[in-house]
Amino acid sequence: MSVENTIGKARSKWMEGTGPDNDVVISSRLRLARNIEGYPFPHFMSEEEANHVINAVRLAVSEKAGAKFPVETEFIDLNELSQTERQILVEKHLVSPQHIESPANRAVVIAHDESLSIMVNEEDHIRIQCFLPGLQIKEAWRLADKIDDVLEKTLNYSFCEKRGYLTSCPTNVGTGLRASVMLHLPCLVMTKQLGAMVNTISQLGLAVRGYYGEGTEAYGDLFQVSNQVTMGQTEDEIVTNLLTVTRQIVSQERSTRKVVLKNNKPFLEDRIYRAFGVMSYARVMTAQEAIKNVSDLRLGVELGILKTPAYDQINELIILTRPAFLIKKAGRPLNAGELDALRAEIIREKLSKININ
Amino acid sequence: MSVENTIGKARSKWMEGTGPDNDVVISSRLRLARNIEGYPFPHFMSEEEANHVINAVRLAVSEKAGAKFPVETEFIDLNELSQTERQILVEKHLVSPQHIESPANRAVVIAHDESLSIMVNEEDHIRIQCFLPGLQIKEAWRLADKIDDVLEKTLNYSFCEKRGYLTSCPTNVGTGLRASVMLHLPCLVMTKQLGAMVNTISQLGLAVRGYYGEGTEAYGDLFQVSNQVTMGQTEDEIVTNLLTVTRQIVSQERSTRKVVLKNNKPFLEDRIYRAFGVMSYARVMTAQEAIKNVSDLRLGVELGILKTPAYDQINELIILTRPAFLIKKAGRPLNAGELDALRAEIIREKLSKININ
Questions:
Q1: Residue B356, pLDDT score
Q2: CB–CB contact A274 B266 (8 Å)
Q3: How far, in Å, are B41, B279, B297 from residue B291 at the CA level?
């Protein structure tokens, strides 16, 4: 595998559109924060120390060290990539926006099927992330746990008997575990139920965020729900709590869909078909409008109004039309107008192959 | 010919989309107001007098009286029609909205090709109206003049040597002539030049109105320009004045189109193709949105961005999607939601036969 594989294609394991409850849950993600004993946290490291950590991780994931991952991986130094390529990794959720802010002395390990990425020297030395389609938090945890065991064979983690895994930010101390799900909640948004739900969810120690995590806007009716607390609960408790709350949200969204479909079918059909019509013909489209239209298409499939596109095609459309992906495709810098024109062109091309009738 | 011909089809001579300057001028219309000597104006007539007038006109247009019209006509008593059918005559501009408000003792003579209609007992005893596609005010006047001559053979018009033709409303006294053109001015609207132009036009004794005349909104970038004064000018002066001003507006719209196309092509293409996309897929559409979208399609053809639909198909779409036409098609009363759904259906069906690419 070359990095071109990851950067050139708009598909990842988590985008398959499969998995349990895939009518509401797009993907599940689990992240473990780990640090190596004897080194300062990344923000306080010297370049030399940072390089030591990078090399230690590079060795830990290599076959030389006897690392046996359930998936094939590639080690990528962020400095080897262009800014556009790094941005693509963000757009595919493989690294955080923070990770590429200063790429020096940072790296990422990516699995071929993109079900796994390991950020090196982000906020912590190591952040293991597992992504699976649908509601598969436990499965993602199991995968992350395996990766964690492999790394631990070589690396000496900072661990305190009393507090658990030590991390750069106190909110991650303990299990170092953050689990999240990406949900499509068009009918909870439409019926204005989400605001009240977010309050309840917060009281259960969970946070609701937009599509690209903390501080990003929730557009396209897409929301991330994740645990806030990493200490004082076992991994199992964190995962089970998120699973339980997610199932409640899923159930609420589903019953709302039924009610909305019963009471407002012509309005819904109109909204969904208009989205398809606009996407099939527009010559200029902003990222925000694109994701709104994609969300409406997905709603059409979720409600059974449309038979196609399939969920994986819908997920692909979101990634394909993000700015860095477009710039990579064009092979040159694009201004805002050019981005919006190329986005519209790609959407038209993709939809022209889809027969919704 | 039966009245079904007129009410069942959405095409009239003026909708052909042909004629001079048809890229801006949809149609030309000329109306002559006439009254019969010895009868009060319609608002003050007894039923008996109204019937006398109706019978006099019925005879005047009949072959028995030796009437030789350049086009075949039919005499229709408004009471013979349903309210929906009368409304269709309004939607096709063959009668005024006022004419059908109280249909008792009122009639209309309609030519088979709908280039001519004669309202009987509207505001005046007789209103001869001629409609032609494109900028053909003189031609419409010539046709109206011929009809006027035919009627005058039998009917004794109220005429005063000093004031000219006497009419119910003083604004029509004199020539009794009102000439108007229907213009499509999307680029003058887009560039906000129309407001200032309307002021100038008013100072030249002309009025600018919306699609259905006095007091109606100007939607779909469609405007009627007509003379305000009927006295103190000869017929020729009125017609020539309107022709001159119209040619100036046409020229201004055309040069603005060139500028807009040069400076904003992607924006224009997007607007036009989106209109096509929405029309091809929407499930619900208000009359107002329909005419806005039709206007955008027309703009696409005017700018050469679209090769189809042809102007006659565009004009037909406007009429086909008016409420009374929809109700007639459904064969039963429709509520607002049903109207919007049927409108969207008819538009989809029509556009599915048009290949714009």
A1: 78
A2: no
A3: 37, 11, 10
For A181, phi and psi rounded to 5 degrees? Answer: -125, 145
Q: Give me the DSSP letters along B158-177.
A: -EETTTEE--SSGGGTBT-E
The CATH number, out of the four listed (3.40.1280.10, 3.30.590.10, 1.10.8.100, 3.90.1640.10), of the domain defined by the range A3-253: 3.30.590.10
Residues with Cβ < 8 Å from A33, sequence gap 6 or more? A123, A124, A126, A127, A165, A167, A168, A172, A176, A177, A178, A230
- pTM value is 0.88
Q: Does B283 touch chain A (CB under 8 A)?
A: yes
DSSP A154-197: H--B-EETTTEE--SSGGGTBT-EEEEEEEE-HHHHHTT-HHHH
Residue A344 pLDDT exceeds 90: yes
For chain A, give every domain's residue range: 3-253, 264-352
Cross-chain residue pair B277–A273, CB shorter than 8 Å:
no
CB atoms within 10 A of CB B81: 19
Q: What is the pLDDT of residue A319?
A: 87
Q: What is the pLDDT of residues A161-170, one digit of tens each?
A: 988 999 988 8
| Residue where the block lists tokens 């992504």 | A131
How close does chain A come to B298, measured CA to CA in Å? 16
Which DSSP symbol is given to B192? T
Pick from B273, B278, B280: which is nearest to A283 by CB? B273
Residue A341 near chain B (CB below 8 Å): yes
Report percent pLDDT > 70 for chain B.
96
B273 shares contact with chain A (CB less than 8 Å): yes
Residues whose CB falls within 8 Å of the CB of residue A204, separated by 6 or more in sequence, listed in order: A241, A245
| A108 SS3 class | strand
Q: Tell me: cis bond preceding B309? Omega within 30 of 0 counts.
A: yes
Residues from chain A contacting residue B273 (CB–CB below 8 Å): 281-283
Q: How far is B270 from chain A (nearest CA, A)?
A: 4
